[in-house]
Amino acid sequence: MPNAADVGAIDPRVRRSTGYPRSSATEGGTNMLVVKRLGVLVSMVVIGLAPAGAAYSAAAPSATPSATPSSALSAQDRQFLQSIHQVNLAEIATGNLAKQKGTSQEVKDLGGRFVTDHTQLDQKVQSVASSGALTLPNKVTSEQQAVMNQLQNVSGADFDTQWITSQLTAHTQAMQLVQAELTQGSDPSAKQVAQQAAPVLQAHHNALVAAAQSLGVPIPGGTTVAPNPGVSSGSPARSGTPVTPGPTIS
What we know:
Layout: H1 4-9, H2 12-18, H3 24-59, H4 75-101, H5 105-131, H6 142-152, H7 156-184, H8 188-215
Helix pairs in contact: 4-5, 4-6, 4-7, 5-8, 7-8
């Protein structure tokens, strides 16, 4: 058995092999080395995970909506868009009738012009209605259908007369719809439709008045104008009884 002096002189390497306890200084140094190595490993893991975390953040969808919903349409806006859509449907249908059944070239030309213009106007109407989640009617009103049926049953000069008369009435009513939206509407997009439609409808009305003057067609609510002698039905009269112009939309 070794005495106490021999135990104190035993080499540390022998102590490890023989089970003798280590000295406190040696154990403290070993623990510090382990802590340092763990710190290095943790740093390496964190650095390695950083790119992956950044990539996940970039790929993750944003919780914020990408687009804001369109503004709600007021009752006036909805009524205007639905009504002007039906006006466009009726004008396209009656314009095609004028191209097919018109006797004068003036009526045929106006019919083709109305088809083109009202088709373009209705594209904007449908776009605004879609943005506002508004369902548009898929057919004309009963009054508009009655006019179309009547035009189907006449021909020749009678067709031209009735077509011009009905178109003057229809465009006057359409301009009233536009005026109501301009003064009472609230949705900017719906009011923009009205602003775009106003000059088109006014130009159509003016052309119809000129055609009525040329063909001697009575103007609803206005004066019956006799056709000027020597003026063909395909050209507007350049002189004769003045005709009261249609309403102007500002």
